[in-house]
Every structure is written in C-alpha cells, then in structure tokens.
Automatic annotation (TrEMBL):
Binding site residues for ATP: E31, N35, D76, M81, S96, G97, T167, R338
Name the UniProt record assigns to this protein: Chaperone protein HtpG
Family recorded in the similarity comment: Belongs to the heat shock protein 90 family.
Signal peptide location: none
GO molecular-function terms, A-Z: ATP binding; ATP hydrolysis activity; ATP-dependent protein folding chaperone; unfolded protein binding
Length: 626
C-alpha cells in the first residue's frame, strides 16, 4: 500500500474544481465517459499498429447505479493503467503555475484552455462525489491497482485482484448530489452528452422480443429476453463519407436529432474538411418562419462525438444559426469545462468555411434544379436575406442564387431582374425603379394599377426587407426600390411626359381648401396631382423614405427616433377625376360626405379602415343606396 499527496501546487484544488472550473455539475458524467472512450480508442490504436498484443474485441462502456450503496460506476474495457501510470496521470495533476491559474480564474472560467491541456477531466467527479475509487488493470502484464481519494489531497494506492483489462471508476455520491443516483437523471445525461459517442455505452438492460417460430400456433405468446440497453449511436451520419449515405440516411439522422420535428428538412449540407482544421457535420435547412429570432440554438456542437453545447455563436455565422444539425470539430478551443467557446483564429476560419460551403451548396441546388429551388424559396429566403445583411462573404456569392419573385410567381436573380426591367422601369433620370409589395393581398389595388401600366411588381415581404433594399441600393448604382403604394404610379416611375390638369390653379387652390377642412392634418398630408382621368380619385400612399426608416428602426438599424414616429400617409387627389370637379360644384353636408366616402375608400385600398370607422362607412354606404 502507498499513500501520499496529490502533486499540485495549491492544496485547495478540489474546491477550485467544484466552484470555478465547471459551470454545471452534471458534466462530470460527460467527462468520465469521455475518458473511458479515450482509453478504449487508444487501445484500438495500439492493437491496430501491433504495440498491444491483446485482443481488442468488441469493448463497451457500462454505467451502473447502486442506489442502495449510493454509488455510481463507470466501467470500460480500454487500455487500463498500471500503478505507476496512476501515480503519473492521476496524482500529478498537470498544472503549470497553479497559483497564477487560480488567480486568473477566481471570478470566471470562461477564458480557460482545453480540458485535456490541464488533465482535469477526471477530477470533475469530485463535484458530485465525497469519495472516488479507481480500480484499473492495464493491458500490460502487470497487477491491477486500486486508488482511493476522499476529496482532500490525501490518497491511497494499493494492489487489487481485478483480472479483466480496463478501468472502473466508483463515485460515492455526496448528500447534495443524490439526483445522480436516479436512473432517469443518468439516462437523461447520457442521452444529452453521449448520444453519439464512438464506443457503445451500456446503461442497464431492456426487453427484446424473440422472433415468432414458424410453427407457432395462434395461441403463441411473444417471448422476451433481456439485452444490453445501448443508449448511443456510435456511428452517426456525420462521421461517414457523403458518398456512403443516401437521402434516406440523412432524413433518418434528422429524425434521430429532432424526434419531435414532424416536417422533413428541405435539404442538407454535409461538412467534411481536414485542413487547415478538422471539421465534420451536417446542416439541415428546415422550413423557416418569417421570424428571424425564433429558431436559434438548434445546431449541436460536438467535440470528437461528445456533445458540448447548442450555442454555436461564433462558429456558425449568425444567419445560419437558424438552421439545424451537428458540427463536430476537435479544433474548436473550449474552456476547461468544455462549456464555452474561446476567441481563436480557427473559429473564424471555421465560420468562413461554413459560409463558403453553404454558398456553394445553394448555388449547386439553384443550378442543378432551378424549378425545385424556386419552390423552396419562400421557406429559406429569410435565412439568405439575413445572410446578405450580416455576412459580407455570403453577400459576395449571393447574387448567383438569391431570387426576387414577382406577384405572378416568376423568379429572377438580381442580374436577370435588371435586364428584364431596364426598358420599362427606367425613369426620366435614368434610374431603374423596382416596384415591390410587402403584402400582396392588402396592396392589391396598387399592384393592379402598376400592372395596367405594364410594370412588374416584386413580392418582398420579409421583416428585414427595408434593410435589404437599402443595401442593394447602396451597392447598385442607379437602382432604387419603391413599394407600390409609396405614391401614385406615375410619380413612382416618372417619365418625360406629364399629364396636364383639367383644373386651373385657382380651382386647385379652392379644392385644396375644401379638402383641408375635412381631412385631418394630424395623420395625412394632402397632395393634388394631375393623373389619368380613369385613375382613382383618392389614393392613400405612404412615403417610401419615412416608412422605410421607421421599419428599419423597429427591426434594428435605420435612423434613431424614426421607430417612434406615428404612421403618416399622403392623400393623393386626382385633379382630373370627375369627383374633383364635382366637389367644386357641391357644398355643405353633401360635399363633406363625398370627401369622407372617397377617403374611406382609399383607406380600404390600404387595409386601414377598421373598427368604428369601418362600421360608420358601411352604414353610410347602405344609406346612400336607399
């Protein structure tokens, strides 16, 4: 028997581990199962190169609960340790400058290095255990060893009669951690952190039905046997080569990741790179809602098939955070508890790689089957538009596949759109004016008017459209966007010829006075325009600049203060309409009723007539029919 002190340069290593190094006590199981996996894979490597003259076999890791004895066992069949190796790897904690370490991380552990660098994974056991035992037998022909420590720097190390290769960790669970003696809790943790570990993990047994014998009669009762309950999938799809997988395999893996997600993903992107960093993974494009923030934290980050976090901010570009799937990389630097990402050159490289890979996949999908890509556009556009705004490298490539649909369900790239519209949509100043609607049904009358003039109208209805068109205008000379209800159509795309007004200047001034007496100035700006006599007498428009700045302020961006501005509209009155002449010819109550009726009709065209105003309009309309 030998006794001694664990070789660290500060004696309070265990309180340090319990308080500072780990943000969540539950990860002790992840660390211990990871160590068991490492020991097993190392043995596989040694047997593979002929350095270990033993049978590798089909090893597994077993997790057992002894609730009565208040113990948790983690057992592996890996390479094990000799007593000398226990002294080296367990007793001599790999600290360099522990005093400096303690000082640096006394308030936070968010900036520490990779756990393997410090050799602290095993010591996470003391977060939940009052005593820890190691019983281990090396693959080498040497006696087994039994190490015991009660959470102080004191330990004992004695021989043991264990004959089978491998290591058993026994945790004597502390009174404040008895939750880790519950089967459902341990099962939950194994499924969370170790669901895709590369070595089979046994956790109890389960019943499995035996096949029904061919000669069994109708009264045959199904027989069951106990089999090992393997809780993980050691060979998940992302660890395989894309050439070895079919679409069905990707769909099945999606179901494995998200068992409660009932819709199939639209498509997937398989990531696989080994230089200048190592990264594998599969990203899925699900059907997207119009909400930018709703679907984040669905991508899972793994390190060598060990779950780390579902917060991949920094690794995955922000706009792709709305996707689903898995990323696995041993080259992503984490802190000592594997819980936080660190700032590192590799992280940016990985982010850039993912951006490029997604861009290439989208371009390939667009090129290979444009019709199918167009069908999926509305389900993916929010991600792509967000990417254009937030990721310059993605924006550079987006012109090859980002689409701009019209109200008639025709899809154009920006280059195609410019070519298609240049002859009809260019105004007298040489600017190409792109008309769009943010609500196809609500702005239908304005769309119809534009189409009667031979103009195309795009559908741009995402919540970030104002930001997007601002960027497109900045980056494309002589290109401007105007929502179809921003003004009457002849003002939106001004040509050389102007329509003369039927009314003299004196009559126009008189008409303006009549209108101002009835139309409230608080919400409306009056605008008299000479338009085609067949155009609507009253049109309600919302100025592009003011509306756009307001929308941008509300979604983050734009000019400060615009988000709080009340909704303002222009009332455009067509001086060539018969109603304009009629208003000049009538007086009093009749004149006022005509103005209110015309204004309400204009509001209806904008979807603005609601509540009490709508009720009054309906009543007034029926009275006029009587």
């Amino acid at each position: 028997m030998s006794t001694g002190k664990i070789n660290v340069s500060v004696e309070n290593i265990f309180p340090l581990i319990k308080k500072f190094l780990y943000s969540d006590h539950e990860i002790f199981l992840r660390e211990l199962v990871s160590n068991a996996t490492d020991a097993t894979l190392k043995l596989k490597h040694l047997t593979g190169i002929g350095e270990a003259n033993v049978e590798y076999g089909t090893p597994q890791i077993e997790v057992k609960i002894d609730k009565e004895g208040k113990k948790l066992h983690i057992i592996d069949q890996g390479l094990g340790m000799t007593a000398e190796e226990v002294e080296k790897y367990i007793n001599q904690v790999a600290f360099s400058g522990a005093e400096e370490f303690l000082e640096k991380y006394k308030d936070s552990a968010k900036d520490a290095g990779i756990i393997g660098h410090f050799g602290l994974g095993f010591y996470s056991a003391f977060m939940v255990a009052e005593k820890v035992e190691i019983i281990t037998k090396s693959y080498k022909d040497e006696p087994a060893a039994h190490w015991t420590c009660d959470g102080s720097p004191e330990f004992t190390l004695v021989p043991h009669d264990k004959t089978e290769r491998g290591t058993e960790i026994i945790l004597h669970i502390a009174e404040d951690s008895t939750e880790f003696l519950e089967e459902h809790r341990i099962g939950e943790l194994l499924r969370k952190y170790n669901k895709f570990m590369p070595i089979p993990i046994k956790f109890g047994t389960r019943k499995e039905a035996l096949p029904k014998p061919e000669d069994a009669g109708d009264d045959y009762k199904t027989e069951y046997i106990d089999v090992d309950n393997i809780i993980n999938n050691p060979s998940p799809a992302w660890t395989k080569q894309p050439t070895d997988l079919k679409d069905e395999d990707y769909q099945n893996f999606y179901r494995e990741l998200y068992p409660m997600q009932f819709e199939d993903p639209l498509f997937h992107i398989h990531l696989n790179v080994d230089y200048p960093f190592n990264l594998t993974g599969i990203l899925y494009f699900p059907k997207m809602s119009q909400e930018v923030q709703m679907q984040k934290d669905k991508i899972q980050l793994y390190q060598n098939q060990v779950f780390v976090t579902d917060n991949v901010e920094g690794i995955v570009p922000e706009f792709l955070g709305m996707l689903r799937g898995v990323i696995d990389s041993p080259d992503i630097p984490l802190n000592v508890s594997r819980s936080y990402l660190q700032a590192d050159g590799n992280v940016k490289k990985i982010s850039n790689y993912i951006t490029r890979k997604v861009s290439d996949k989208l371009k390939a999908l667009f090129t290979e089957n444009r019709e199918d890509f167009e069908k999926k556009w509305n389900d993916i556009k929010i991600v792509l538009e967000y990417g254009m705004l937030t990721e310059p490298k993605f924006y550079e490539k987006a012109g090859d596949f980002v689409l701009y649909p019209t109200v008639n369900d025709t899809y154009y790239t920006l280059a195609e759109l410019k070519e298609k519209l240049k002859d009809t949509h260019t105004d007298k100043n040489g600017k190409l004016v792109v008309l769009y609607t943010s609500h196809k049904e609500q702005q239908h009358s304005y769309i119809a008017t534009a189409q009667e003039k031979g103009y195309q109208v795009l559908v741009m209805d995402s919540p970030i459209v104002s930001h997007l068109i601002q960027k497109l205008e900045t980056d494309n000379e002589n290109l401007t966007f105007a929502r179809v209800d921003a003004d009457h159509i002849d003002k939106l795309i001004q040509k050389e010829d102007t329509t003369p007004s039927k009314l003299s200047e004196e009559e126009q001034e008189k008409l303006k006075g009549i209108l101002e007496h009835v139309i409230p100035k608080a919400n409306y700006t009056l605008q008299l325009e000479a338009m085609d006599s067949t155009a609507a007498p009253f049109i309600l428009t919302q100025p592009e600049f003011m509306r756009r700045m307001k929308e941008m302020s509300q979604t983050g961006g734009g000019m400060m203060g615009f988000g709080n501005f009340p909704e303002m509209y222009n009332v455009v009155v067509n001086t060539n309409a018969d109603l304009a002449t009629r208003l000049l010819e009538t007086e009093g109550e009749t004149q006022e009723k005509l103005i209110k009726q015309a204004l309400d009709l204009a509001k209806i065209a904008q979807g603005l007539l609601k509540g009490e105003e709508l009720t009054a309009f309906v009543k007034r309309s029926f009275e006029q029919l009587a």
